Amino acid sequence: MTVEVAPDGTVVADGEIDIDSAPYLHEALEAALRVHPEGVTLDLSAVTFCDCAGLGAFLDARRRHLAGGSCPLRLGPVSPPMARLLRLTDTEALFAGHATGR
Q1: Most buried one in 27, 32, 37, 94, CB count within 10 A?
Q2: For the purposes of burial, counting CB atoms within 10 Å of the CB of 51, is it exposed (0-12), middle (13-18) or buried (19 or more)?
Q3: What is the pLDDT of residues 10-61, one digit of tens each?
Q4: Does residue 100 surpass a pLDDT of 50?
């Protein structure tokens, strides 16, 4: 997996998110949210696989920021495998701005 933070605060993940790569995603989300407290969009349109550790990384970031009184983490475009995972885990509605990707 690769993860990049765009200048506008969009966190773009590409590839497979699993127990080995999820900490990098979590770190990128936390860093982006510190720099962009007004909001961060998570772009998962190029994610080909995500296990529970990956799902946990962005759910944890969401939970921690909700505890602070706001949730500036938005879900941007998602790949078909991510859309399926979000549907199966009933978590897609937790994120504002959810849009289906390619």
Answers
A1: 32
A2: middle
A3: 999 999 999 999 999 999 998 888 888 888 899 999 999 999 999 999 899 8
A4: no
Q: How many domains does the chain have?
A: 1
What letter does residue 94 receive in the DSSP assignment? G
Question: What is the secondary structure of 34-48 as a DSSP string?
Answer: HH-TT-EEEEEEEEE
The whole-angstrom separation of Cα 29 and Cα 6 is 11
Integer CA distances (angstroms), 96 to 1, 5, 6, 33, in order: 24, 19, 19, 15
> Residue 11 is part of which domain span?
2-100
Give me 44's structure tokens. Answer: 């998962």
Task: With H, G, I as helix, E, B as strand and everything else as coil, classify residue 75.
Answer: strand
Supply the CATH number for residue 23's domain: 3.30.750.24
- Tokens describing residue 87: 């549907």
